[in-house]
Write a structure and sequence with these properties.
This protein has about 775 residues and is of the alpha+beta class. The chain folds into four domains: about 300 residues, no CATH class; about 210 residues, no CATH class; about 60 residues; about 100 residues. Helices cover about 60% and strands about 5% of the residues. It has a four-stranded antiparallel beta sheet with strand order 2-7-6-5. Helix 2 runs antiparallel to helix 13, helix 15 packs antiparallel against helix 17 and helix 17 runs antiparallel to helix 19. It holds the Pfam family DUF632.
Length: about 775
């Protein structure tokens, strides 16, 4: 039996099926590890952002020098992520995560010409032959309560809400406590009013933004042509119904940003904005931060000059071009503001990986969603509660029973399986195929033995009964060979069907999702890299401030967060390589027929061959990634933070030693004063020479000193005082060294990590973009 088993294991077909099973088993395990590493990496981005913010709040005196060059940020949204819906050779763009610095809203062409200032409209007499050069447009901040552009919103507040004759503001506290609870129609009506008001406000903002852009374009044309007749012609085309409230004689205000600001009618206290910037011609204004209040950072939207061929009257093309080419000059004032901006993009980068998390089933919600086919019955003492969801009641149940719901299974099969369940089913099929092929080969070996026995019996021509028995065994084995071969063929066909119909589109979708994630991450990391360059101009404007326990704790948390980031980054790249390598090894073996060692190029489908080539190129792209550079950059920043933490620990140790000596000095001084008060009425006069005693006075002074009972204690106090002074001096030097090293390490270490991670993400985008171009042939 052992010899037969060893022969079966040595068969090429059995060995290939065993390799296929091993590769699929490794792929299932690698997918689980990849999902875990992906979730941990996204979490580490958020944790690192929070830890870096706490660390920066502990150094409020680190300010950016006025001589530091401001950074120029692109106001455009992140590049659109490719879509795998059509899977063309060239990735199709789709919606991607938006930046916190979005461009002006693409404006539709409006039939009315841009509004003119009231001064130009109200002039009854004709203008002189050469009109004065108009002032440049200045746009106040859209979130400032004292802004001149606020009349647009105030005029909107004066409009009565639709359908509610007696409603003033959403924060009218009388409406929060009505005499009787309102019905559902009240809330539906209120919701409709809020949506209608939001649409009206968005239309006003778009109208003003379009007016600003068109007026700015016309101003550039007038500045080049120096023609005064153009100014007179624009006044005649002023629409009669255009509301120009908030325009002054010498300043034209408009808004060029899209905001999510909600007025008081919508039930929000204060203004909130995700844009964080507005355009101003003087290149500098204060923007309201997302974190509340007014951020002291300075922003300025600088539109790049349009080309001559783009300055057309079409409206749409010029507006979109101007919005796309908008740039922002950003200047932060402190380290805390720089880190706050970096933290925002860390969160956005983490959010960009949600699509990949959905595909990899990296969260508990996606795991629970796979158990919809289980019907849960909770038995309580007084009732039986049945529900499809896995939520628990407040009371502890007596028993819980699960039952398989076949209807949910059929519904799930029609809706489509998840990627994890597809791999699990392929692994089950591979195990079944291995057992069937192994059984078939063992039957074949037994059949060969029986044939040898039959040949021997026929050669000897003896024992016809044994000969007939051998022939019957051979017939039975031949039937088993047919059955086992059909079973292996059926299982192999099922594997091919799952591979071509389910696994192939899922892998293509996963590749496109990874491309979109890294493209968004590259966009956000590039912005972080530009923002963080301002730390090179940090200076310490305050006196040396000692390190507190909170500062040291924040530094320790930052070191732990960056170390976790480094570990999760390495795990993410490693498990992704292992996953694709296992899948490629399995796909390459599936090209061979179960009964033959020759690749089935003729019988293999086009999808299987293209999918194998697709995974091969994906594997090679992952192997060529320079992840070691980014990993070393993150690790070097861990070492930088560790050095800061070590210096802070040394400073704290010196500080504690100085405090100990100070307490000891105070204790000895108090003891000396108590003794002096006890044995003398006030302070001791022993050791003081009498005035005018001359030489005798000096000798008597020495005699008094020799008899002073407190001389030893005074000597100890003097020595302790010198120790305290030495420790205080040492502590002051340690504080200076710590702050200087902290500043230098931040200036050298922080830009390097973002430069490395931005470069790595850009390389990943280039590599995956080439891989995704082959996805069209797979689909």
């Amino acid at each position: 039996m052992g010899c037969t088993a060893s022969k079966v294991e040595q068969e090429d077909t059995v060995r290939r099926c065993k390799e296929r099973r091993r590769h699929m088993k490794d792929a299932v395990a690698a997918r689980q590890l990849l999902a875990s590493a992906h979730a941990d990496y996204l979490r580490s981005l958020r944790v690192t952002a929070a830890a870096l913010s706490r660390f920066a709040k502990g150094h409020p005196s680190l300010a950016v020098s006025h001589h530091t060059t401001p950074v120029l940020l692109s106001a455009a949204a992140p590049p659109p992520a490719p879509s795998a819906a059509r899977a063309l050779p060239t990735p199709a763009p789709s919606t991607a995560a938006s930046s916190s610095l979005p461009p002006p809203t693409p404006l539709a062409q409006h039939p009315h010409p841009p509004p003119q200032p009231p001064a130009a409209m109200a002039a009854p007499q004709p203008a002189p032959a050469r009109a004065p050069r108009p002032r440049r447009l200045r746009v106040p901040h859209i979130l400032s309560d004292s802004s001149v552009a606020s009349p647009a919103r105030s005029s909107f507040r004066k409009q009565p809400p639709v359908g509610t004759p007696s409603s003033s503001s959403a924060w009218d506290w009388e409406n929060f406590y009505p005499p009787s609870p309102p019905d559902s129609e009240f809330f539906d009506r209120r919701k409709a009013e809020v949506e209608h008001a939001s649409r009206l406000r968005e239309l006003e903002e778009e109208e003003k933004a379009r007016a600003y852009l068109q007026h700015h374009t016309q101003y550039n044309l007038k500045e080049e042509d120096e023609a005064a007749e153009d100014d007179d012609g624009e006044v005649d085309h002023e629409p009669e119904g255009m509301h120009c409230g908030g325009w002054e004689d010498d300043e034209h205000y408009a808004s060029t940003t899209t905001s999510e600001t909600r007025s008081e009618d919508e039930g929000e206290m204060g203004d909130r904005s995700e844009c964080g910037f507005a355009a101003r011609s003087e290149c500098g204004f204060v923007a309201r931060s997302e974190y509340g209040g007014t951020a002291p950072s300075e922003y300025a939207a600088v539109p790049l000059p349009l080309r001559r061929d783009e300055r057309s009257e079409a409206g749409d093309s010029s507006t979109v071009t101007a919005a796309t080419e908008m740039r922002m000059v950003v200047r932060h004032r402190t380290l805390e503001e720089i880190v706050a901006a970096i933290e925002e993009y860390f969160v956005k980068a983490a959010d960009s990986g949600n699509d990949v998390s959905e595909l990899l089933e990296a969260s508990r919600a996606q795991l629970d969603r796979n158990f919809r086919q289980l019907k849960k019955t909770v038995y309580h003492s007084n009732s039986v509660l049945s529900a499809l969801s896995s939520t628990w009641t407040s009371k502890p149940p007596l028993a819980v029973r699960y039952k398989l719901d076949t209807n949910a299974l059929e519904m799930e099969s029609t809706e489509g399986k998840s990627h994890g369940s597809t791999l699990e089913r392929l692994l089950a099929w591979e195990k079944k195929l291995y057992e069937e092929v192994k059984a078939r080969e063992s039957v074949k070996i037994e059949h060969e033995k029986k044939l040898s026995t039959l040949q021997s019996l026929e050669y000897r021509r003896r024992d016809s009964a044994k000969l007939d028995k051998t022939k019957a065994s051979i017939n039975r084995l031949q039937s088993l060979i047919v059955v086992t071969s059909q079973a292996a063929t059926t299982t192999s066909s099922a594997i091919v069907r799952v591979r071509d119909n389910e696994l192939a589109p899922q892998l293509v979708q996963l590749c496109f999702a990874l491309l979109g994630m890294w493209r968004s991450m590259n966009h956000f990391h590039e912005i972080q890299n530009e923002i963080v360059q301002q730390v090179r101009g940090l200076v310490d404007n305050s006196m040396a401030e000692s390190t507190s326990d909170l500062h040291r704790l924040a530094t320790r948390d930052l070191e732990a967060a960056v170390a976790a980031w480094h570990s999760n980054f390495n795990r993410l790249i490693k498990y992704q390589r292992d996953y694709i390598r296992s899948l490629y090894g399995w796909l390459k073996l599936t090209l061979c027929q179960v009964d033959s060692s020759v690749p089935q190029e003729v019988h293999a489908s086009m999808i299987s061959r293209e999918l194998t080539s697709f995974c091969d190129e994906w594997k090679q792209a992952l192997d060529r990634l320079p992840d070691a550079v980014a990993s070393e950059a993150i690790k070097s920043f861990v070492n930088v933070v560790h050095v800061i933490y070590t210096k802070q620990a040394e400073e704290m140790k010196i500080k504690k030693r100085a405090e100990t000596y100070s307490k000891e000095l105070e204790k000895k001084a108090n003891s000396l004063r108590s003794i002096e008060k006890k044995y003398y009425q006030s302070y001791s006069m022993v050791g003081l020479g009498l005035p005018g005693s001359g030489r005798d006075g000096i000798e008597s002074h020495a005699a008094y000193d020799a008899r002073d009972p407190l001389a030893e204690k005074k000597t100890e106090i003097a020595q302790c005082r010198r120790k305290v002074e030495d420790e205080m001096t040492r502590h002051a030097k340690a504080v200076e060294v710590t702050r200087s090293m902290t500043l230098n390490n931040i200036q050298t270490g922080l830009p390097g990590i973002f430069q490395a991670i931005a470069g790595f993400s850009g390389t990943v985008v280039e590599a995956l973009d080439v891989v995704c171009r082959r996805a069209g042939s797979v689909r």
